[in-house]
C-alpha cells in the first residue's frame, strides 16, 4: 500500500505568500489560463496588472502586451504596506490580496477565467469606498521601436530595404463607452510582403501564411455596477463590493465593436467563472505530480554587477516557502508553463507572456544582460521603455521553444501539444516552395528560426543577397540550423501518436510531413542509386559550422526511420522505399581519441572550433533517444567527452558572460544524465537549477537570466524535464535508482510514453509502483 499523497496539499505548500508591496513590476506574480496571461502586483496606489496573449501580434510581428491596468479606491487602502498580504493560490488559480486597514479590511481576488479569455477582479471592503480601475497604455503614437527590436535588423543597413524600414507599429485607440473602456490595436501595413520579397518568394506568396494583416487585438473593461467613465478610467461610487472584468480579443476580422457586443452578451457572473476556474486547476494538479523530500537547498552565485543591481529594488517579502526547493521549483515552473501552453502561438522562450520592464533606464542589451533584467525600472511604461521589449529576436527558435513542450506528455497533457503542431503546420506550403525555388528539390525545407509567416527577419536572413545563395541565412548561428528542427518536430509528433493512439492524426499530419522530410533529403542530398547520402555542408547545431553529416541530422533521420518502420501493419506505408532510404543513410558519426576511446562525433567531418556551448553529440539521447540502438558504453564515453570539451556540467552564476557553459537555461544535461542512468548527476543539476531565481524579483520562479531572459522559460522547463526524466528512468530501469541521493524520497504520478499512468514512491533503496 502507498502512503497517501495529496497533490493539492503539496500545491498549497508551494503557493508563495508575500508581505508588503513593491514599487514596480519586479514584484509581479504570474497567472494565466493557457492563452491570456497577466503579471499582477501591488504598489502603494493599488493593484496593478499587465495583460498579454500569444496572438496579440503587431505589424512588426512583435507579441505586445494588451496594456497595464490599475485598480484603486478612495480612501486608499494600499498605502498601508505593512498590513498587506499577497498570495498566489495555485489550487484555485487565483491571486488573493488582503489589506488589514484601520478603516476596515479590504479583500481582492484576481483570476483569469479558464474558459473565456477574461480577467476578473473582485473588490470587497468593510467600509464604503469609491472604486476605480484605469487603463494605462504606452503605444500613444506610431512607433518603429528600433532600440528595442534591434536584432530585427542586426548589422544590416536599413536603406537596403526602404519599404520594410517604413513599417511602423500604429498607435492604440482608446474609446470611452457608456458602460466601459475599449482599447485596441489595429494593424496597418505589415512586414509580411517585404519579408516574402526578401526571400525571393513573390511567385509563391500565396503559400506564405499571413497572421498579421488586418489583425486587431485589445480589451474591453467593465464592471457589474453603474459606473462613471472618463477617459481610460472607470469609477464606481460608494460601494462595499465591485466586480470588474477585462475581456480580451484578437482576430484578423477587425471591427472591435463586435467584440464589445459579444462581451456585453456575457453577464459578469464572477462566481460561476471562479468556480469553473478553480475546478480546472484542481483537475490539473491532480492529473500528475512529483513531490521530492530530502533535497539539499543551495544558494545561487551571482556577479557583483547583478548583486548591486538588485540592492535598490523595492519588493514585497516572500514569507512562505516549501520545505523542498526542488518540489517548489517544479510546481511553479509547471504553473508558468500551463499558464501559456494553450495559446494560438507557441510559448515564447524569451520571457513567455510574463515579460517586464527593462531595468535601470536601459534597453535590453547583450553587454548589460544581467543588470538590465535585474535592476528596478525607472518609472512606468512609456513608448520608449516598456514591457513589450524582448531580448534576442522576435522569431521563434525551435531549439528554445521546444523545451516546455517536452514536459507535457509525461504530465498527461497531450492536447497542449496541438497549438505547437498547428504553428508549424502553417508552414508546409512555404517550406515546399522554399525547397522547390531555393534548392530545386522536392519535399519540405525546414529551418530553426521563424517569424509567424515561416520566414526570417533581415537581421537573420540578411538584406544584401548579392553574394549568397537563396535560402542561405547570414546569421550562422540559429539562422543556419536546418533539417534537424523538422526531424525533431516529427519525432515529437510520433511521441504524441504513441501516447494518444490517434491514427487520424498520424495519417493526416505525421506521415505526410515525414515523407516530405525524406523527399527533400533524397532529392537534394541523394546521388546515384544505392550510394550513401551525404548531408552537408550543414551546421551541427550552433556549435560547429558547415560540417558534413552533422550528428543531429543523421540521428534525426535514423530516429525517423525507426518510427516509420516500427508502425503497426495496419498503417499503410511503402516499407521497401523506406528501407532503401534507411540503408543509404550515413552511420552515426564516431571518432576515436589518442587513448583509443571511441565516442560519438559532432559530424563525420568538422572543424574543431566550437561556436557555442551546446553538445550536438548528445542528440542521440535527447531528443532522438537512440539508446536502444547505440551501446551504453559508447554513450557514456560520449557523455564524458562532451563534458571534457564543453565544460557545461557546472551551475550558472547569475550575471556571468552569456556564453559561459553551465547546465542551466536551455541546456539539457540534466535530462540526458537521467536518461543515461546517472541520477546522481541529474539530481545535482536539479538542486542547483532550483536555486537560480533572479534576485531582483519577488516571485521565486523568475529564473535567470541564463541565456535568454527573465523569466527564463527554458530554465523552468529544464527543471521540469530533469525531474520527470529522473522518475521515468527509475521506472524503466529500476537499478538506476541506486544512484539517487540517499536522502531523497520521490512520490509521483506521471504518464509513460504509451499514455498509461504510473504512480509510486522511489528512493535509492526501494521502489513501489502501481500502474493506473
Automatic annotation (TrEMBL):
<dbReference type="InterPro" id="IPR043757">
    <property type="entry name" value="DUF5703_N"/>
</dbReference>
<dbReference type="InterPro" id="IPR012341">
    <property type="entry name" value="6hp_glycosidase-like_sf"/>
</dbReference>
<protein>
    <recommendedName>
        <fullName>DUF5703 domain-containing protein</fullName>
    </recommendedName>
</protein>
<dbReference type="InterPro" id="IPR008928">
    <property type="entry name" value="6-hairpin_glycosidase_sf"/>
</dbReference>
<dbReference type="Pfam" id="PF18961">
    <property type="entry name" value="DUF5703_N"/>
</dbReference>
<feature type="domain" description="DUF5703">
    <location>
        <begin position="19"/>
        <end position="290"/>
    </location>
</feature>
<dbReference type="GO" id="GO:0005975">
    <property type="term" value="P:carbohydrate metabolic process"/>
</dbReference>
Amino acid at each position: 500500500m502507498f502512503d497517501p499523497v495529496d497533490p493539492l496539499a503539496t500545491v498549497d505548500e508551494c503557493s508563495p505568500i508575500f508581505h508588503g508591496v513593491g514599487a514596480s513590476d519586479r514584484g509581479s506574480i504570474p497567472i494565466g489560463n493557457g492563452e491570456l496571461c497577466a503579471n499582477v502586483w501591488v504598489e502603494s496606489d493599488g493593484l496593478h496588472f499587465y495583460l498579454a496573449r500569444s496572438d496579440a501580434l503587431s505589424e512588426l510581428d512583435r507579441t505586445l502586451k494588451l496594456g497595464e491596468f490599475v485598480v484603486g479606491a478612495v480612501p486608499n487602502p494600499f498605502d498601508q504596506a505593512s498590513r498587506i498580504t499577497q498570495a498566489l493560490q495555485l489550487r484555485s488559480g487565483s491571486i488573493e490580496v488582503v489589506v488589514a486597514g484601520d478603516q476596515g479590511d479590504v479583500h481582492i481576488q484576481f483570476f483569469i477565467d479558464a474558459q473565456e479569455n477574461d480577467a476578473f477582479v473582485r473588490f470587497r471592503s468593510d467600509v464604503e469606498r469609491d472604486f476605480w480601475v484605469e487603463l494605462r497604455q504606452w503605444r500613444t503614437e506610431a512607433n518603429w521601436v528600433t532600440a528595442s527590436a534591434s536584432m530585427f535588423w542586426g548589422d544590416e543597413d536599413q536603406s537596403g530595404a526602404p519599404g520594410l524600414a517604413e513599417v511602423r507599429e500604429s498607435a492604440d485607440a482608446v474609446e470611452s463607452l457608456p458602460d466601459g473602456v475599449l482599447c485596441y490595436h489595429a494593424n496597418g501595413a505589415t512586414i509580411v510582403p517585404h519579408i516574402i520579397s526578401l526571400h525571393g518568394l513573390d511567385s509563391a506568396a500565396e503559400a506564405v501564411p499571413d497572421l498579421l494583416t488586418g489583425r486587431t487585438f485589445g480589451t474591453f473593461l467593465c464592471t457589474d455596477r453603474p459606473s462613471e467613465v472618463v477617459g481610460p478610467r472607470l469609477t464606481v461610487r460608494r460601494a462595499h463590493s465591485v466586480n470588474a472584468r477585462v475581456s480580451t480579443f484578437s482576430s484578423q476580422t477587425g471591427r472591435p465593436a463586435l467584440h464589445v457586443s459579444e462581451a456585453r452578451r456575457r453577464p459578469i457572473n464572477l462566481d460561476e467563472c471562479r468556480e469553473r476556474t478553480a475546478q480546472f486547476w484542481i483537475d490539473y494538479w491532480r492529473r500528475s505530480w512529483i513531490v521530492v523530500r530530502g533535497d539539499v537547498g543551495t544558494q545561487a552565485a551571482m556577479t557583483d554587477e547583478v548583486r548591486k543591481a538588485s540592492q535598490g529594488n523595492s519588493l514585497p517579502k516572500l514569507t512562505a516557502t516549501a520545505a523542498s526547493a526542488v518540489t517548489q521549483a517544479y510546481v511553479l515552473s509547471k504553473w508558468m508553463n500551463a499558464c501559456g501552453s494553450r495559446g494560438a502561438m507557441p510559448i515564447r522562450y524569451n520571457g513567455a507572456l510574463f515579460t517586464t520592464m527593462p531595468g535601470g533606464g536601459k534597453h535590453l542589451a547583450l553587454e548589460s544582460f544581467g543588470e538590465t533584467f535585474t535592476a528596478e525600472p525607472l518609472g512606468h511604461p512609456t513608448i520608449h521603455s516598456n514591457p513589450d521589449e524582448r531580448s534576442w529576436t522576435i522569431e521563434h527558435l525551435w531549439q528554445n521553444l521546444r523545451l516546455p513542450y517536452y514536459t507535457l506528455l509525461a504530465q498527461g497533457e497531450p492536447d497542449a501539444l496541438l497549438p505547437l503542431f498547428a504553428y508549424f503546420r502553417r508552414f508546409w506550403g512555404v517550406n515546399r516552395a522554399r525547397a522547390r525555388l531555393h534548392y530545386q528539390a522536392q519535399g519540405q525545407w525546414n529551418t530553426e528560426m521563424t517569424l509567424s509567416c515561416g520566414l526570417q527577419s533581415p537581421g537573420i536572413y540578411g538584406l544584401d543577397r548579392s553574394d549568397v545563395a537563396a535560402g542561405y541565412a547570414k546569421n550562422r548561428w540559429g539562422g543556419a540550423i536546418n533539417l534537424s528542427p523538422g526531424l525533431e518536430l516529427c519525432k515529437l509528433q510520433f511521441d504524441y501518436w504513441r501516447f494518444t493512439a490517434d491514427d487520424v492524426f498520424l495519417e493526416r499530419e505525421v506521415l505526410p510531413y515525414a515523407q516530405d522530410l525524406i523527399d527533400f533529403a533524397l532529392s537534394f542530398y541523394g546521388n546515384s542509386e544505392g550510394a550513401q547520402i551525404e548531408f552537408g555542408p550543414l551546421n551541427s547545431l550552433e556549435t560547429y559550422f558547415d560540417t558534413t553529416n552533422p550528428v543531429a541530422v543523421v540521428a534525426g533521420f535514423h530516429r525517423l526511420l525507426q518510427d516509420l518502420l516500427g508502425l503497426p501493419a495496419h498503417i499503410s506505408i511503402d516499407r521497401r522505399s523506406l528501407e532503401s532510404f534507411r540503408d543509404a543513410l550515413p552511420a552515426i558519426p564516431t571518432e576515436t581519441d589518442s587513448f583509443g576511446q571511441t565516442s560519438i562525433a559532432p559530424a563525420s567531418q568538422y572543424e574543431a572550433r566550437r561556436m557555442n556551448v551546446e553538445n550536438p553529440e548528445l542528440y542521440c539521447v535527447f531528443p532522438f533517444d537512440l539508446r536502444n540502438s547505440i551501446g551504453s558504453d559508447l554513450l557514456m564515453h560520449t557523455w564524458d567527452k562532451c563534458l571534457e570539451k564543453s565544460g557545461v556540467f557546472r551551475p550558472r552564476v547569475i550575471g556571468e558572460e552569456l556564453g559561459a557553459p553551465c547546465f542551466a537555461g536551455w541546456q539539457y544535461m540534466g535530462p540526458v544524465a537521467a536518461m543515461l542512468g546517472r541520477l546522481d548527476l541529474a539530481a545535482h543539476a536539479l538542486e542547483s537549477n532550483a536555486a537560480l531565481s533572479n534576485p531582483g524579483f519577488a516571485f521565486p520562479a523568475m529564473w535567470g537570466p541564463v541565456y535568454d531572459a527573465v523569466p527564463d522559460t527554458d530554465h523552468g522547463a529544464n527543471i521540469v524535464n530533469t525531474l520527470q526524466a529522473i522518475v521515468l528512468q527509475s521506472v524503466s530501469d529500476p537499478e538506476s535508482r541506486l544512484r539517487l541521493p540517499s536522502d531523497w524520497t520521490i512520490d509521483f504520478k506521471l504518464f509513460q510514453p504509451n499514455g498509461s499512468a504510473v504512480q509510486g514512491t522511489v528512493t535509492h533503496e526501494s521502489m513501489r509502483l502501481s500502474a493506473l
